[in-house]
Amino acid sequence: MKITITDVRKRYGDVVALDGPSFEVPSGSTFGVLGTNGAGKTTLFKLLVGHDRPDAGRIEVGGLDVEAAGHRVRERVGYLPEHSGFPPSMTGREVLDVHARIRGLADRRERIDECLALVGLSEAADRAVSGYSNGMARRLGLASVLLSRPPVLVLDEPTAGLDPRGVAAFHRIVERIDRETDATVVISSHVLSEIERLCDEVAILQDGRLRANGPIDDLRRAAGDRVTVVCRPADDRAALLEAVQGYGDATDAGEEIEIACDRADAFDLVAALGETQALVDSFEVHEPGLEAAFHDALAAETDDEEVPA
Ligand SMILES: Nc1ncnc2c1ncn2[C@@H]1O[C@H](COP(=O)(O)OP(=O)(O)OP(=O)(O)O)[C@@H](O)[C@H]1O
């Protein structure tokens, strides 16, 4: 089910939370909304699921206007908010039973079992939620969203605060949903690698504005002229930093030094590193990823701001 966002604006007092982004989420895609803190991701999701109204602009889900069609849109969209809580004394199964009853599901028992299995909570289903880890609670939240098989899933920073195992488990579930259903899945995150792993397309927001959007492969290709050379210094890191000056933007990244440079300059840099072997233990050249596209998108904005009106 396609989602269309057109020139959506939202203010909270003096704060402009959304400043007119327009983009489409293709039907059946797994779509990432990427942005730093305060970029407007949660605001956009609240408008998308009808929990709040835009000041201007329009959002359509499968051709239905969210503002005009209210509850008909909410039936189509399963929303996992950034923070959700459950009554701690209830078991996971009881929580899902309440949600299933509210939605009037006919095949309640079977569907609850299916959703528990899908999120890997079958064995923990009859334990009190108070004993669940953060990761289990998030997966229970996802199960509650999946119960009514909504054609659109909106997941707001679903892995925030989870440990690496919890993140990996959540990712596997999203990948399975992507493989096995036609659902359109919209996920927000500020973790680039997560979006890169899970999503086909992305919209990058900053300060409420759309900075870039499209298939991740296209954004990567657009950023393709930049590569990152990562060096592990021998003893004298200051001398190495000095030696790489002029080839690109060098960053002291803990144990390593990263030099972001044009592909054309990378050859000269690698040759120079070869000549200064005493300074370098090892180096690698990294091809551009979504990270390069993200930084390009944000840097383009900084450049715009530097142009006098
Ligand atoms: N109810 C509100 N009242 C006042 N300001 C708000 C409200 N909700 C959001 N904002 C502001 O709007 C801007 C966008 O916030 P939003 O929560 O949508 O960003 P976000 O991208 O989800 O950020 P995060 O990654 O930190 O969750 C921020 O400056 C935020 O402080």
TrEMBL record:
Residues 3-232 form the ABC transporter domain. The keyword ATP-binding applies. Coiled coil: none annotated. This is ABC transporter ATP-binding protein. One of its GO terms (molecular function) is ATP binding. SUPFAM superfamilies: P-loop containing nucleoside triphosphate hydrolases. Belongs to the ABC transporter superfamily.
